[in-house]
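Researcher: Please translate sequence to structure tokens.
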Amino acid sequence: MDDTKKYAIELTKDIVVAKLNSTNSDTSNRDAGKAIGNMFEEICNKIYEICSTENIK
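Model: Translation complete:
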């Protein structure tokens, strides 16, 4: 795993934790877990894409 991917994962973790802390949902089930996983993946992929461009160094 390259440094850019590690950075994307760490930043995504911070974003998702902040989002979950600001949400009033007490629901913990399979569907909620899938939604959180999908949200994490989408955010992480976008951050990695942005950080991987030649314009960002």
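Researcher: Any highlights?
Model: The chain has one domain: 3-52.
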